[in-house]
Design a protein that fits this description.
By secondary structure, the chain is mostly helical. It has two helices and no strands. It has helices at about 15-35, 40-55.
């Protein structure tokens, strides 16, 4: 099964970009928890989990459009 088509973009083919985005979202979740905005923390955590699942479990490289 391939990643969700909205995330299936050639820009995410390099592993470091997928890792960087996932780490950024984890840090953002931590900032929201630190600021005690738990609703936003839950929302960003859900996005983090969604991206992590699609980027590292379901991911298949997308051919470039060149």
């Amino acid at each position: 099964m391939a990643a969700h088509k909205t995330l299936a973009n050639p820009i995410f083919n390099p592993l470091w970009r997928r890792v960087a985005l996932t780490i950024f979202l984890c840090l953002w979740t931590g900032v929201e928890i630190w600021n005690q905005t738990y609703g936003w923390a839950a929302f960003i955590a859900a996005i983090t989990i969604y991206c992590g699942w699609n980027f590292f479990v379901l991911w298949e490289d997308v051919p470039s459009k060149e």
